[in-house]
Amino acid sequence: MTSILVALCIDGKDPHGLARFWGGVLDWPVADDGRGIWPSGGTGFGIRFNATTEPKTGPNRMHLHLTSTSLDDQRSTVERALELGGRHLDVGQLPEEEHVVLADPEGNELCVIEPGNRFLAGCGFLGEVACDGTRAVGHFWSEALGWPLVWDEGEETAIQSPAGGTKIAWGGPPLPPKTGKNRLHFDLAPSVADDLRAEVDRLLSLGATRVASGPGTEGAVALADPDGNEFCVLPAR
Questions:
Q1: Quick one: which of 84, 105, 110, 205 has the most CB atoms within 10 Å?
Q2: DSSP three-state, residue 184
Q3: Per-residue pLDDT for 236 more than 80?
Q4: How many angstroms separate the CA atoms of 128 and 122, rounded?
C-alpha cells in the first residue's frame, strides 16, 4: 500500500483570491467551490486553499518552481504573475542567478526557473515543489508515496512519480526554525478504499508522528513527517 498525493494545500486569509492567482498563473481551472485548482485532464495533484487567520511569519519551508521554455516564456510568466497580484521578492539571490523570485498576493514564495534547467527537464510547467528538508525526510516521502528517488546526493534528495511530472525536492540542512504550523502542506489519501487506519499505521511506522489538529475534513488524520512538517491523510475518495 502507498498513499496518493491528492493536493498541495496553501493556507491563506483569502483562499478564493489565491485560487484566482494560482489558477491564472498555472492556467488550471478553478474548482466550483472557488478554493481549489486542478490540472486539466485530471492527472497529477491539485492545489487547495484553506482559510486561516494566522499571519505569515517567515519563509515557507515549501515553494513552487515554474519552468520556462525560453527567455521570452520566462518573462511572460513573470509578467502574468505580476498582473495577477504577485510581486518581486528579494531573498538574497545573486545578480548572476537566472531564476526570478516572486511572491503571490499573500507573500508565498515562488520561482520562475530559467530555460535550459536540466534538473527540471521534462517535468512540465509546474516543475518542482522545492522544500527545506533533510535527507531522511526525502526517503520518508519516497516510501510514503511510492515515488522513486531521482536524486540522492549528499543531503539533497528528490522524488518523482513513476508517471513523471512535478518533482518534490529537499535541499538538506540546516532547516529554518518552525514558527508555527506550516502554511503549505500535503493532503494524502490511501491507495486502497477503507484502509485509512492501516495507511496511518504504515506512515507512523515510517517515522511520521501524530499532531493535535488538522483540517476540517471529516475523518482526516493529521500527522507530521520526520522533520515536523504537518500533512493530512484523508479518507479514500
A1: 110
A2: strand
A3: no
A4: 11
